[in-house]
TrEMBL record, chains A, B, C, D, E:
GN (gene name): corA
A Gene Ontology cellular-component term: plasma membrane
TM segment ranges: 308-328, 340-360
Record's keyword terms, sorted: Cell membrane, Ion transport, Magnesium, Membrane, Transmembrane, Transmembrane helix, Transport
Primary residence: membrane
Listed name of the protein: Magnesium transport protein CorA
Record localization: Cell membrane; Membrane
Keyword Transport: yes
Amino acid sequence: MTTRRPKPEKSQGKPKSRKRSRTSGLPPGTLVYIGPEREGPVHITAMTYDRSGVTEFPVLDPEKVGQIPKDHLITWINVDGLQNIHAVETIGKQLNIHPLVLEDIVDTTQRPKIEVTDDYTFIVFKTLTFDETTSEIVSEHVSLVLGEHCLITFQETAGDPFDLVRNRIRSSVGRLRTSGPDYLAYALIDAVVDDYFSVLEKLAEGIEVLEEDLATRADPQMLREIHKLKVDMIVLRRSVWPLREVLNRLSKGDAPLVQKETIPYLMDVYDHTIHVIETMETYRDIVSGMLDIYLSSISNRLNQIMKVLTIISTIFIPLTFLSGWYGMNFKYMPELSWKWGYPMVIVVALTIVSLLLYLFRRNEWI
Amino acid sequence: MTTRRPKPEKSQGKPKSRKRSRTSGLPPGTLVYIGPEREGPVHITAMTYDRSGVTEFPVLDPEKVGQIPKDHLITWINVDGLQNIHAVETIGKQLNIHPLVLEDIVDTTQRPKIEVTDDYTFIVFKTLTFDETTSEIVSEHVSLVLGEHCLITFQETAGDPFDLVRNRIRSSVGRLRTSGPDYLAYALIDAVVDDYFSVLEKLAEGIEVLEEDLATRADPQMLREIHKLKVDMIVLRRSVWPLREVLNRLSKGDAPLVQKETIPYLMDVYDHTIHVIETMETYRDIVSGMLDIYLSSISNRLNQIMKVLTIISTIFIPLTFLSGWYGMNFKYMPELSWKWGYPMVIVVALTIVSLLLYLFRRNEWI
Amino acid sequence: MTTRRPKPEKSQGKPKSRKRSRTSGLPPGTLVYIGPEREGPVHITAMTYDRSGVTEFPVLDPEKVGQIPKDHLITWINVDGLQNIHAVETIGKQLNIHPLVLEDIVDTTQRPKIEVTDDYTFIVFKTLTFDETTSEIVSEHVSLVLGEHCLITFQETAGDPFDLVRNRIRSSVGRLRTSGPDYLAYALIDAVVDDYFSVLEKLAEGIEVLEEDLATRADPQMLREIHKLKVDMIVLRRSVWPLREVLNRLSKGDAPLVQKETIPYLMDVYDHTIHVIETMETYRDIVSGMLDIYLSSISNRLNQIMKVLTIISTIFIPLTFLSGWYGMNFKYMPELSWKWGYPMVIVVALTIVSLLLYLFRRNEWI
Amino acid sequence: MTTRRPKPEKSQGKPKSRKRSRTSGLPPGTLVYIGPEREGPVHITAMTYDRSGVTEFPVLDPEKVGQIPKDHLITWINVDGLQNIHAVETIGKQLNIHPLVLEDIVDTTQRPKIEVTDDYTFIVFKTLTFDETTSEIVSEHVSLVLGEHCLITFQETAGDPFDLVRNRIRSSVGRLRTSGPDYLAYALIDAVVDDYFSVLEKLAEGIEVLEEDLATRADPQMLREIHKLKVDMIVLRRSVWPLREVLNRLSKGDAPLVQKETIPYLMDVYDHTIHVIETMETYRDIVSGMLDIYLSSISNRLNQIMKVLTIISTIFIPLTFLSGWYGMNFKYMPELSWKWGYPMVIVVALTIVSLLLYLFRRNEWI
Amino acid sequence: MTTRRPKPEKSQGKPKSRKRSRTSGLPPGTLVYIGPEREGPVHITAMTYDRSGVTEFPVLDPEKVGQIPKDHLITWINVDGLQNIHAVETIGKQLNIHPLVLEDIVDTTQRPKIEVTDDYTFIVFKTLTFDETTSEIVSEHVSLVLGEHCLITFQETAGDPFDLVRNRIRSSVGRLRTSGPDYLAYALIDAVVDDYFSVLEKLAEGIEVLEEDLATRADPQMLREIHKLKVDMIVLRRSVWPLREVLNRLSKGDAPLVQKETIPYLMDVYDHTIHVIETMETYRDIVSGMLDIYLSSISNRLNQIMKVLTIISTIFIPLTFLSGWYGMNFKYMPELSWKWGYPMVIVVALTIVSLLLYLFRRNEWI
Ligand SMILES: [Mg+2]
Ligand SMILES: [Mg+2]
Ligand SMILES: [Mg+2]
Ligand SMILES: [Mg+2]
Ligand SMILES: [Mg+2]
Ligand SMILES: [Mg+2]
Ligand SMILES: [Mg+2]
Ligand SMILES: [Mg+2]
Ligand SMILES: [Mg+2]
Ligand SMILES: [Mg+2]
Ligand SMILES: [Mg+2]
Ligand SMILES: [Mg+2]
Ligand SMILES: [Mg+2]
Ligand SMILES: [Mg+2]
Ligand SMILES: [Mg+2]
Ligand SMILES: [Mg+2]
Ligand SMILES: [Mg+2]
Ligand SMILES: [Mg+2]
Ligand SMILES: [Mg+2]
Ligand SMILES: [Mg+2]
Ligand SMILES: [Mg+2]
Ligand SMILES: [Mg+2]
Ligand SMILES: [Mg+2]
Ligand SMILES: [Mg+2]
Ligand SMILES: [Mg+2]
Ligand SMILES: [Mg+2]
Ligand SMILES: [Mg+2]
Ligand SMILES: [Mg+2]
Ligand SMILES: [Mg+2]
Ligand SMILES: [Mg+2]
Ligand SMILES: [Mg+2]
């Protein structure tokens, strides 16, 4: 399991990536897309809804985002694709989003955070999903601008964990249609945190496999898998820790646009992030213990190898000396002409072997 | 010692488990049982009591939980079995429990926590008991909803550490019958924390056995036992640390339903959780020190093995060379025909052996 | 140096111990003695004193503790022996001590702590002394109940570090006779902390011995001594850290029964506990560094052993081959019949040896 | 990658450095240059600007710094070269800079910090740039004195990351010309932090190279590179951590000279320092995991080597004994004269080899 | 580099030391000298000074310390030698110093701290100097009692880092003569902290030497030097950390006797202690990294040794077997009488050697 950014354009080799250093020295608010190289237009959709009904706008032009018909009270605009700086800028201008906020929206390396003003609340977080085909964690940068009657979400590419939320809006399941955009924001974050649990379960499976392997064999490949697990946990931690802080602030009522009724729900998802973090810490301790077992099993195997070598050597080296001794060609070497010389040597040899075997057994070497 | 969830339905193989990820994208308050696969109906009992007497209701229907005759002032309802979502929902509705609270009640992976509102206090904790037959720590998820005249407890399965508390209610021992449901809640948590000490004592026994083993032998099995001890401590820590925080808040008077007279008792059980935590930290340090001893004893044994090999080799290799030398078949090799050639070689061989033995002894190798 | 509880009744084998789990499920305030198995009656003494004089009561009956003649303003009652639950209960009732406090008094595993009420201040701490005959740290559980005109101390067994304080009361040295029971409490804690320094000095001696040993030899016994030092430090830490917190609260004036004049003295002993803790942390770092040196000296010795083996093998193996070669029995093997064959082989052998010795020296192996 | 101070005067050997200890015992406010030995005059430039235009002063005399024509509202004075104490003192006097501040300006080892008074805000930070030719991080000490209409910057040598900011002033891009000197200070710090990202990317490249190497080979050189990476991260950390604190204080409005409009920008750059720090922590974890892999791959290789030795030895040592045995010269040794003696020995030898190979394969050694 | 207490009286063997445990059970305020055994009288000097001039008193009797002519406003009394308890007590009584303060003055193991009362401020710190002749850090316990018009300093022995301060008073350089005793206290502490930088530079030199050694050789001596460096850093840390806290409190205006004008200077020296601490943390990380390199270089060398052994053994063992084989004395052994038997064996031997050398090279062993 390793971590991957979603859908890089080039299928072979490493995708080119636009790095942070490109923004060096630029005035603040200059939009520069930072992230894996991507192409294609921005894709914009919108929904307006309230108690009375839902209207969907499946395709929207960046220039017309400001003119969505206000059929219903609440508007949710979703933007897929951050690489088209001009489009993002156009959207930002129409919706009165501060240039510094736009800068963070197009910087996919921006860490999760919250910025609260009187007019809007700006939240950055990461979606994490496990890609079964590649065994990789796919991370996506999502920004959320919460206004009084409006919620705008920005994502790197199409595809998100929000479809069940969309269905709940359409079918009027739960409190979504009767609540404000703050509850919608909660529902989206909740869906994202639910996915963290799936990733956590995948990590747990990886740990279980490793633990079974550890009991049967311990080869260098295992160490690489332990390292990969650790790196995956680092990725997860970098996404969850700051999000926990974001939710802590939200559930403490810091954002004026969040209504009092939504706070218990935010506390619930805050509680889930703590659950994720604590489970992760537990995994870290377990993986670290596995590393200790692995390392000592290497040492132990070396001991086994050396024991074999030492037993074989210790038994045969004296015997070899003995036979070499009577292989000497001295003229005057009385034993060689004794009648019982050879049987005597056989007896000596057997005695040596027996004695050594006895000693080895007494020391529990064999 | 390992950790086990109580009574999985399937006796062979790993019990199937309903995982957190099942709740993905569902609206909040949707009840989804998370935990080991279980079947069977919910079992509900109740007691009402006060100074004047006790009435017990050994079997209750989920639909009739709201209509328990109020013979006495205080009502304690206990629910065994969380897998029957419908029953839990029915109970919740009658007793006016918030859907988010019900969601946490049926999620057996929920970490210990406290939620305080004006109407009720909701507490989650874990019971831990040591199963002697399997040498496993059995953990159970228990939820506690404290109302003004009522306490409701939810457990995964039948069987709990509360029987002594029940007897104290029946026989009117101690302050239970003369106090409110907050004191009952204290008594239950106190009984649970008392069990933590039993688990702690089992860990202590495991550590003692390991320490004795360490003095006599140090085989790879030991390392696995150290790892298992560590994992057990992680389980205990995950249960105690958040419970300590819960009790800290309770004993500071944060919950309006907790009466002033109960606070010293809550401080007492809070003190016990600190005791558990500090003892656990001590064990962790000791186990970590044992790991160091184990690892270095492996290294040390390797040294011993190599010393034996080296002593044997160093003594016999020169002798073998010597005898090989006089085993050469050169025609013109004067020593072979000397009269004292063979005795001379014997003397040389004995000199080499003596010298080497002297050197080994001087270097304290033997 | 290891840690021991004082005077176990059974001299051979491990003393039986009454464990915490015995209290499982009991109502709070049920007195249960927890600690090493002991027998015998409780021994009670008392002193009353003030500016005008001292009266001592060398033997007191538990039933009569409440009727000590108030000859002088301040009364100090000392109780030796906690195993007699009935006696402790009797004393507690007469002196109006809360059952929860009594429970902590007879629980010798109770960690150091402070409980402040308007009527009394309850303090738990541990005395530590070094037993020269067994090289063990002996720890004793001491409780102190401070009232307005009265101080009651409870100990596990007779014998304590308070004799010098008693003498200071008798001979009216220092401020004891002119101050209240709060100053007496300070004087007792100060005497206990002074003993911590003695234990610290013993640890320092142990570390010094180990450091010298490390320079000359490094055998597995050392590792056990390092482990024992570490465990001793854990014991000391468990006693000092919470006591430091107790003194911090006392010296901040949290306890209403502590007079303003006593506070500088409490700050002084608080400062001493910090000194103990900092010194201990230093020792921990030093011991941990010693462990690193020990472990690497094992590795280093393995290198030395392997070097000896390799040098011997590398020199003799080619020579042995050489002599084996000319020990072959081929009929047509011209070297064997050369006149200078044998001297030639001698020269070759000497050349090989010289060359190898030169190479070893160049690589600084010898 | 290693860390270097900019442009030391002496190209060979280590540059001489003027150390902190030179200031020992001097009265406070005595200017002593601390840093790498340098010579040459101080170079001073200035810009005055506002909405209406820009005037530049490319060369200024230290004595005339106080008399720059106030053509425009805001003045930015930049001083390159701190080794000329007299010049710095002259400038300081004219601009009313406190001697303690001047002392910190000429101490290039001064850690990043902020000092706020009513008249000025004094900020110290470090620029970091990666020198491609030497693969070294070049660090430079920069001080910034922010007055009401004036900003003074002091650097060690000419060359800085501020040229893009200068161009933005000249071409009136962004808010610089319409804002005060506080915004200029922000722009300079922002440019410096942007450079930290470049350094971070270089570290990331180094880590990637190491990770690939780890997969293919693991030689001692790697360990040195890991160590160098770690030292580089320490340098970066020492620059970023205190700057983060500086920006935290600035963005909380602690400095009266910082206007409310500038605060969101300061929060933005504060956010970037957190990004740098978190990324660095991640790198640290990854590098530490790589060290574990490296160390265990050494152990593993030793196992491989020992396996080869043991296999070879274990196969040949019994064979050598066998042949030595029948190389003995006893007169009465019946096997030697058997007709099938030699074939028998061949069979025995082949049997031994087959058996051993079978055993090795069964144990998965070969 | 190791740490030493200044000038022990006995030149050979370890100096006797008076330990803390001597104070066991004594009433508070009983003066007991704790520190290395010393003899000789106390040496007292004094200066009185103000704007108008300086008067020095090179030798003072302990009994007359209270009667120094008040020629000038500010009086600085310095006491060298703490072993003469009676003298210290006499001085203390005349100057109205609290017995608890005197107790700390004569306890050279007292950690740095500050005690603030309305009448005086009591500060304890440690001077550290590097003794070039013994390569040891010499630490001295200094106490400072700051009154309204008076400063009293106590030291263990004559000799201190304050001579430059004395000269500044005499020659009226800087603000000393025009400021109060609080500024004098600052100047003394500043001089002491300046010396910490010298010690730091010595540590840096030690680290540099070790880093160079690490690149060329890695012998066990190195590990001892690393350990010594670590212990030196522990000593430095124990002196600086608490002093930092002392200066933090002073620079926050906690002490009423410290005037507002002195606070920026105290902040400056506070900043220096942070600098010392951060540099030390950096050194610690670097030294810890060096330890890792050292340990792995030992492992690596073992690998080299084993490789040599394995190559030699693997080449010669089959050859030795081969020659042993044809050294067998079977009557019917056809190869022995073949004409090309011996050349054939030569060819086989060369083939084996070539093959093995090829395999070793392919595996990059040689
Ligand atoms: Mg920028
Ligand atoms: Mg980020
Ligand atoms: Mg997407
Ligand atoms: Mg959720
Ligand atoms: Mg929940
Ligand atoms: Mg490890
Ligand atoms: Mg470890
Ligand atoms: Mg959900
Ligand atoms: Mg949980
Ligand atoms: Mg149950
Ligand atoms: Mg309890
Ligand atoms: Mg208690
Ligand atoms: Mg270790
Ligand atoms: Mg109980
Ligand atoms: Mg305890
Ligand atoms: Mg006692
Ligand atoms: Mg004391
Ligand atoms: Mg003191
Ligand atoms: Mg100075
Ligand atoms: Mg610095
Ligand atoms: Mg520059
Ligand atoms: Mg920036
Ligand atoms: Mg930003
Ligand atoms: Mg490590
Ligand atoms: Mg004392
Ligand atoms: Mg100290
Ligand atoms: Mg001195
Ligand atoms: Mg200074
Ligand atoms: Mg300064
Ligand atoms: Mg290490
Ligand atoms: Mg290590």
